[in-house]
Design goal:
This protein is an all-alpha fold and 136 residues long. The protein has one domain. The protein has 6 helices and 2 strands, in the order ααββαααα. It has a two-stranded antiparallel ribbon.
Length: 136
């Protein structure tokens, strides 16, 4: 099998394992990052871009209905603002952050939380350094 394909399959298996072992963390990440992953492409499909509505798109037709006078605070203005850097940029940042987080999580050989919980270490070892015993 192709080594790149083997790596991708192994990575996906690690991600699936991490997700099954950490459902609460996975849910938190999904709630935080999935909206950005959905909003950015949806705006692009509708024709909203960072430079303005794309010619011939749904957004361009919608803007033409206003005759050049788009009402401030309306849905069209909100979506165009998001595409020009509001929500759209947040979507890209959250996507990159999520990808980096998953990569780092997969590179770790041990989960630090599990390591702390399963450790046999009882904490700092107490010594008799301050005792009054002078029998040396």
């Amino acid at each position: 099998m192709n080594p790149v394909l083997q790596y991708v399959i192994a990575l996906l298996q690690k991600v699936a394992n991490y997700v099954s072992n950490h459902p609460a963390w996975t849910a938190a990440v999904a709630v935080a990052f999935v909206p950005g992953l959905v909003v950015t492409p949806a705006l692009g499909v509708l024709g909203f871009s960072a430079a303005g509505p794309v010619a011939g798109s749904i957004a361009a037709g919608w803007q033409a209905m206003y005759g050049g006078m788009v009402p401030a605070g309306g849905l069209f203005a909100i979506l165009q603002s998001a595409a020009m850097g509001g929500t759209a940029i947040v979507g890209w940042v959250t996507t990159a952050t999520a990808a980096a987080g998953v990569s780092v999580a997969q590179l770790n050989t041990q989960d630090p939380v599990e390591n702390e919980a399963g450790s046999d270490d009882e904490g700092p070892v107490e010594t008799d350094a301050g005792s009054d015993d002078d029998s040396e």
